[in-house]
């Protein structure tokens, strides 16, 4: 039937599940990914889902990658086509030589298939219906049955899946045994009726190590718990809602007084994003560590308060789980599109600190650090995640915490210091770093009170519309932002094997695709030094990197090359030397895309690859 | 008048309260509002109430939005922290501050533009949540700082200073507060300190969302014939249902009124409110009755004032959230951070 040789690959392929939203497929699919991990083989799964609760198509893609490439790859080697609605598109999307797995209960016309793929039919509905009578059971176990069939086809160890089922349904014996039964129904049918395994196989390995498998939003929420956040105010918005939900779940486990059962945290679902950031600012003004989680439209609504935080110097942590904008945009698709909106959020001259974690491990670390930074710098800190990191399970290094670590509460003038006669000016730069001292409300009966306002005021917080007083304060805020440069996570540089005039700058969720792309580019003969930016304001090493290279590619997931704009603007450099590489269709950026875009540009520059020159 | 420094000397014979503070210790900077502004009378009433209650000034956090009314926290309790925040957003800032430290007294000062227009949502939701606060709206029916535009509490048919008739229906914040479950609801008039001071004192003693709508005429833009928020109009249409005294401290004022005319309400903080009934049938514990009473009197053009509703056993947001007694802003890593051993277990569960 095939005029193309079936793909043969061990522990390096992409399986995509096409499902209907709300059919209960998510947990079976996730179990598939986890089962492969238990083989010691890294996976990188991604949810591709609509802005819908039930009925619309949804996909779950699992990249099986022994080499550990965790970015999206592009292309599908095996399609598990469980959704008739998207059948044609799903079948068309399979790589030549790939595999189609489908429910063969009802015969399909041959025109619905392709000649260049291997078609694997399993009568899932028939098996399910002959075993189960309850409609909901039929739907749920059908998912486990295909998981069983896939385990046979892909040569997976069923014991490892049974182990996972055992962990998931620990203490619920009935559910446990019925799931294992369903798994074997599918597996046995495949073993008896199909040629197992197919060309795609999972082989046990040891490439996972001690890494953990976690969603970025959950890791960021855990970072907030470890970082000492006590107040969380939020308004539901995809893809950020699971941050607040995870924070709630973590707090329920780890933040109740064992004796009284009382909560050492307060979580409020605000009436909107304005109230959420207002609550955060009120709580931070009063000395608690507070944060909100939101996405682009929420940032737009919060900007007036963000300006207040900047000007009145009140700490705040905002986790922005970016999605494709503008406006409602594509609310369930990923982008890095709020860089400019956050860096300069609010009216007047404002600048804000942005942190760019690359994965859940950094989301955890940066989330915890954000509270130290917010209190040290007395301003808003943005934790810039995106849907790709936030809502997908990502394999990453284990989370770490140093028990000796104390929170940096910043410059707080205490009652004792006031009693000693220390001069307290709320906006007085005593240390030359632009950071003044603050007092918490209620500190002292007669000393240290001040009136916080968004209007201009002098160094002692007294209202003033004097131009020199206003400018003095604005200059101090610039000094404070310069101080921030050395407090935020520094960029990480990785140089090519041989010296090169070309560099690439990237950040956030682009990381795994970039790492993989470097290998592809090297294979094409292109050498590039890499700089991963982890925060704004930019450390001086960014300017050095630009100075050391003739051309620097800036890879990002938005249309207007926003990070590049920020670099050009903040470093005052010739924009021609910064080449934008942008990917913004809402899907995660891939190594293939980056390698092609940069490779083509390099070719266009008529660079003779070294390898060709010597051969 | 900000260029005039407020003199610090005071008469040595000034009366002192239980804590040894005089009136002057509860004052703030010199007001920059217009001479005769109703808001300044409210400021004076807040000072009086805090003095009478012997509150430590620095244990109060005063939070406001934007507008003439929102400037006033600078003019009282100079030893308290104040926060003149964002237009219409006082309620959220106050909610956050309250969550951070439940031990302070929260005084929210707002205006009719701030609470009935731009901040209508935040007003409503802070009341719904039962934030423990005293929320005072200094209600003059007009935007003063921007020179005389109608606000959302301006009555339909009332006239602006320029002679324009308002065609929009008015929002009655008291009616809304009642409907949303405020557990202390009052209305008063800035020109009646005798009624206002004990209302503010009682509101501060109440644990839960206290709301006071104070009609406060704008001398510059809304004190003319045709306005329903002028001194003359409010005096003529003021229909007080009760007067009250707040009894605190060592020397409770002897209540000596004719039987049946006084109702004593014991508050959560131990203070007592003695309500002298003016309208014999008015029951301030009947939320539905209060709503009906208000609606009927509003239809007749009357402004009902007094303590309109109180639930002395109210719960606040902290009780709903079951938060610890210790203020959250004092907790440190030793109690907040689960530590590395727990993290190792979390890591293990994610493999």
Strand order of the largest sheet of chain A: 11-10-12-13-15-14-21
Poorly predicted tracts of residues of chain B: 250-255
Number of strands of chain A: 23
Q: What is the gyration radius of chain B calculated from CA atoms? A: 21 Å
Top-tier CATH class of chain B: Alpha Beta
Sheet with most strands of chain B: 8 strands, mixed
* Average pLDDT figure of chain A: 95
User: If strands are numbered along the chain, what order do they take across the biggest sheet of chain B?
Assistant: 2-1-3-4-8-7-13-9
Quaternary organisation: heterodimer
InterPro entries (chain A): 2-oxoacid/accept_OxRdtase_asu, Pyruvate:ferred/Flavod_OxRd, Pyrv/ketoisovalerate_OxRed_cat, Pyrv_Fd/Flavodoxin_OxRdtase_N, Pyrv_flavodox_OxRed_cen, THDP-binding, Transketo_C/PFOR_II
Protein name (chain A): 2-oxoglutarate ferredoxin oxidoreductase subunit alpha
Keywords (chain A): Oxidoreductase
Pfam families (chain A): POR (PF01558), POR_N (PF01855)
Task: Kindly describe this structure.
Chain A is α/β, with parallel strands linked by helices and 615 residues long. Chain A has 4 domains: 9-201, Pyruvate-ferredoxin oxidoreductase, PFOR, domain III (Pyruvate-ferredoxin Oxidoreductase, domain 3); 214-396, Thiamin diphosphate (ThDP)-binding fold, Pyr/PP domains (Rossmann fold, 3-Layer(aba) Sandwich); 411-466, no CATH class; 492-614, Rossmann fold. In chain A, strands 11-10-12-13-15-14-21 form a 7-stranded mixed sheet, with helices on both faces. Chain A has a 6-stranded mixed sheet with strand order 3-4-2-5-6-7. Chain B has one domain: Rossmann fold, CATH 3.40.50.970. Chain B has an 8-stranded mixed sheet with strand order 2-1-3-4-8-7-13-9, sandwiched between helices. Chain B has a 3-stranded antiparallel sheet with strand order 10-12-11. In chain B, strands 5-6 form a two-stranded antiparallel sheet. With 351 residues, chain B is an alpha/beta fold. The interface between A and B is large, with 73 and 63 residues. β17 of chain A pairs parallel with β2 (81-84) of chain B, so a sheet runs across the interface.
């Amino acid at each position: 039937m095939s005029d193309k040789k079936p793909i043969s690959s061990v522990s390096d392929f992409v399986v995509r599940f096409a499902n209907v939203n709300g059919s209960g497929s998510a947990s079976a699919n996730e179990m598939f990914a986890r089962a492969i991990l238990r083989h010691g083989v890294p996976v990188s799964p991604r949810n591709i889902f609509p802005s819908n609760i039930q009925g619309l198509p949804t996909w779950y893609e699992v990249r099986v990658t022994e080499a550990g490439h965790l970015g999206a790859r592009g292309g599908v080697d095996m399609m598990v086509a469980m959704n008739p609605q998207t059948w044609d598109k799903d079948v068309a999307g399979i790589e030549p030589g790939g595999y189609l797995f489908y429910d063969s209960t009802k015969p399909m016309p041959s025109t619905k298939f392709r000649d260049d793929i291997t078609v694997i039919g399993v009568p899932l509905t028939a098996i399910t219906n002959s075993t189960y009578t309850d409609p909901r059971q039929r739907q749920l176990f059908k998912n486990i049955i295909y998981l069983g069939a896939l385990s046979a086809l892909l040569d997976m160890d069923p014991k490892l899946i049974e182990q996972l089922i055992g962990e998931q349904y620990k203490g619920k014996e009935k559910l446990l045994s019925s799931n294992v039964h369903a798994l074997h129904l599918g597996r046995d049918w495949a073993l008896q009726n199909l040629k197992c395994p197919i060309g795609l196989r999972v082989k046990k390995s040891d490439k996972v190590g001690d890494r953990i498998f976690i969603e970025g939003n959950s890791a960021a929420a855990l970072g907030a718990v470890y970082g000492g956040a006590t107040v969380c105010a939020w308004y539901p918005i995809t893809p950020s809602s699971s941050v607040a939900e995870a924070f709630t779940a973590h707090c329920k486990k780890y933040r109740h007084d064992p004796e009284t059962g009382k909560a050492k945290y307060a979580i409020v679902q605000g009436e909107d994003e304005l109230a959420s950031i207002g609550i955060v600012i009120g709580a931070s003004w009063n000395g608690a560590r507070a944060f909100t989680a939101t996405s682009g439209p929420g940032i737009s609504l919060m900007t007036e308060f963000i300006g207040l935080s900047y000007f009145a110097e009140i700490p705040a942590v905002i986790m922005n789980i970016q999605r494709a904008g503008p406006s409602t945009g594509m609310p369930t698709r990923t982008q890095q599109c709020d860089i400019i909106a956050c860096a300069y959020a609010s009216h007047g001259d404002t600048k804000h600190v942005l942190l760019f974690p690359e994965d859940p491990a950094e989301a955890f670390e940066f989330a915890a650090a954000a509270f130290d930074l917010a209190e040290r710098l007395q301003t808003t800190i943005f934790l810039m995640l995106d849907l790709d990191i936030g809502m997908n399970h990502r394999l990453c290094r284990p989370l770490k915490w140093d028990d000796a670590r104390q929170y940096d509460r910043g410059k707080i003038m205490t009652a004792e210091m006031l009693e000693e006669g220390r001069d307290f000016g709320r906006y007085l730069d005593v240390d030359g770093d632009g950071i003044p001292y603050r007092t918490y409300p209620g500190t002292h009966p007669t000393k240290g009170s001040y009136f916080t306002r968004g209007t201009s005021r002098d160094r002692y917080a007294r209202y003033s519309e004097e131009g020199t007083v206003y400018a003095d304060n604005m200059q101090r805020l610039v000094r404070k932002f310069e101080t921030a440069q050395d407090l935020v996570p520094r960029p990480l540089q990785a140089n090519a094997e041989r010296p090169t005039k070309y560099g690439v700058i990237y950040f956030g969720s682009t990381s795994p695709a970039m790492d993989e792309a470097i290998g592809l580019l090297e294979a094409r003969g292109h050498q590039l030094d890499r700089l991963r930016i982890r925060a704004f304001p930019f450390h001086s090493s960014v300017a050095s990197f630009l100075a050391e290279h003739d051309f620097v590619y800036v890879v990002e997931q938005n249309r207007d090359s926003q990070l590049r704009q920020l670099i050009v603007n903040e470093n005052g450099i010739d924009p021609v030397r910064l080449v934008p590489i942008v990917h913004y269709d809402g899907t995660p950026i891939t190594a293939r895309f980056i390698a092609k875009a940069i490779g083509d540009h390099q070719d266009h520059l008529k660079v003779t690859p070294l390898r060709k020159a010597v051969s | 008048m900000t260029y005039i420094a407020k003199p610090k000397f005071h008469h040595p014979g000034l009366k002192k309260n239980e804590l040894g503070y005089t009136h002057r210790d509860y004052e703030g900077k010199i007001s920059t509002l217009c001479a005769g502004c109703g808001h300044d009378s409210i400021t004076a009433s807040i000072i009086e109430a805090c003095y009478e209650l012997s509150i430590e000034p620095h244990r109060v956090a005063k939070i406001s939005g934007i507008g003439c009314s929102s400037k006033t926290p600078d003019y009282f309790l100079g030893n308290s922290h104040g926060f003149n925040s964002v237009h219409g957003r006082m309620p959220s800032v106050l909610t956050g501050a309250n969550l951070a430290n439940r031990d302070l007294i929260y005084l929210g000062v707002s205006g009719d533009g701030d609470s009935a227009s731009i901040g209508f949502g935040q007003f409503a939701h802070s009341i719904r949540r039962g934030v423990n606060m005293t929320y005072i709206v200094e209600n003059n029916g007009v935007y003063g700082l921007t020179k005389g535009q109608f606000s959302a509490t301006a009555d339909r048919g009332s006239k602006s200073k320029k002679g324009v008739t308002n065609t929009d229906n008015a929002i009655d914040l008291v009616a809304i507060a009642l409907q949303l479950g405020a557990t202390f609801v009052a209305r008063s008039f800035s020109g009646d300190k005798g009624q206002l001071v004990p209302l503010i004192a009682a509101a501060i003693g109440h644990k839960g969302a206290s709301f006071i709508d104070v009609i406060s005429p704008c001398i510059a833009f809304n004190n003319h014939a045709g306005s329903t928020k002028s001194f003359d109009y409010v005096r003529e249409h003021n229909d007080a249902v009760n007067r009250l005294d707040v009894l605190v401290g060592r020397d409770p004022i002897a209540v000596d009124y004719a039987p049946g005319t006084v109702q004593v309400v014991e508050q959560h903080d131990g203070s007592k409110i003695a309500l002298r009934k003016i309208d014999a049938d008015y029951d301030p514990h009947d939320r539905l009755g209060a709503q009906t009473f208000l609606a009927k009197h509003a239809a007749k053009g009357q402004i009902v004032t007094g303590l309109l509703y109180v639930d002395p056993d109210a719960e606040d947001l902290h009780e709903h959230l079951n938060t610890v007694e210790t203020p959250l802003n004092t907790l440190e890593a030793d109690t907040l951070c689960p530590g590395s051993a727990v993290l190792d277990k979390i890591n293990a569960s994610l493999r």
